[in-house]
Design goal:
The protein is an all-alpha fold and about 200 residues long. It is built from seven helices and no strands.
Amino acid sequence: MDYLSLSLNVLNIVSFGYVIASFIFIFNLIIKKRILFKIGFGIASLSFLLHTSGLIFRWIAAGWSQPPWSNLYESLIFFTWGIMLMYHILYFMSRVDFIAVFAVPLVMLGMGLALFHPAKEIEPLVPALQSYWIHIHVACATFAYGSFIVATAFAIAYLIKKKINLHYFELGLSIITFFAVLALAYNSPLFSELSYTMDV
């Protein structure tokens, strides 16, 4: 079985799943229907499970001695997986629906960047990374970054909902504008240069 192709196909589906879930969560800011949140959460959770399987397939394809974080593409899909993991943990601890509006679109953005990244092949680890410490280091970094991003989203959601009292429609429009600006920044020469530097 070609685990690499299987992984790429699964992760492409995951990217679109996060897009659908993100727009459902943002649209739900306007109409505020519990059933709509449940649909978005179901799609996001299913995408997360597929995300996990896609990472496992890629790890099998590379060999168990080489974890799937050897280049920018793998780093993006792994760190976005970490964000979703921490989102699910914190959601089941707090049951705060509003945080999904920030956490899932961030994952959508990261997976979108990975989807359009040209270098998706498995690359051998450079000698400096050929150590068992990379497993410990990257795993800890993933949980740390995931926790930090979700905690930040949690804080922003709290400030907007409890303190600033923005209208839901204005908030939704602000979020869409924010991600549109990020999408434009992705196509800028500066980001291309950054991607090239990180790959090297």
